[in-house]
Design a protein that fits this description.
The chain is an alpha+beta fold. The chain has one domain: 3-layer Sandwich (Rieske Iron-sulfur Protein), CATH 2.102.10. It has 4 helices and 9 strands, in the order H-H-E-E-E-H-H-E-E-E-E-E-E.
């Protein structure tokens, strides 16, 4: 079950080079959002960040207490979609399952696609809450959220996670990419910190930590 926050209506990337990657991101992002909205539960209320804040790439906040286990919200930071998911205990157990780990390309997050405080098996500060930049590391499409294990959706022997409909790249619920798919890297983890037990601020590192998002291997 996916919950879209009210600031997801625009999926445009930051003005840049106008490359084919940018075009694919915009086109497939719009299709993904439209397709997902058709089957959504009621949206989680979320304050729209000030336009100047979004333009400047300033931090944005989200209250994770609004998410039920298995739900995901999408907010924008630096005009990029940020997936925020509440991972239930069963999902966390699957993330450590050797059967899953054997199918991943970078199970131990060796590539610099996350800040140091997310360099763990769940790639997050709190295991139950995952935050990921929702841009496939192949050609910039927006992966679809399929949290529940299934043998028929979206591929055979599905263990839950993200599926990119453009070229078939797959990621688990920690954003770790599967082996043998076009995407070369795990989904990036943005800088973030908890300013309270439930309020997450995206765009800021925890106190005492210095990490630059631009140091990731690829987005």
């Amino acid at each position: 079950m996916t919950v879209e926050s009210s600031n997801v209506e625009s999926t445009n990337v930051e003005p840049a080079t106008g490359t084919r990657r940018d075009f694919l991101y915009i086109a497939t992002g719009a299709a993904a959002v439209i397709g997902t909205l058709a089957a959504l539960f009621p949206m989680v209320d979320q304050m729209e960040p000030d336009a100047s804040t979004l333009a400047a790439g300033g931090p944005v906040e989200f209250d994770v207490s609004k998410l039920q286990p298995g739900q995901q919200a999408m907010v924008r930071w630096r005009s990029r979609p940020i997936f925020i998911v509440n991972r239930p205990p069963a999902a966390l157990k699957t993330l450590q399952d050797p059967k899953l780990l054997d199918r991943l390309s970078d199970a131990n997050s060796g590539a610099p696609q996350q800040p140091p405080y997310a360099g763990n098996w769940h790639r997050s500060i709190k295991p139950e809450y995952g935050l990921l930049v929702g841009i496939c590391t192949h050609l910039g499409c927006i992966p679809m959220f399929y949290p529940d294990p299934s043998k028929s959706l979206p591929t055979a022997d599905w263990l839950g996670g993200y599926f990119c409909p453009c070229h078939g790249s797959k990621y688990d619920l920690a954003g770790r990419v599967f082996a043998g798919v076009p995407a070369p890297y795990n989904l990036p983890v943005p800088p973030y910190r908890f300013v309270s037990d439930t309020m997450v601020r995206i765009g800021e590192n925890p106190p005492g930590t210095v990490w630059d998002f631009s140091s990731i291997a690829q987005i």
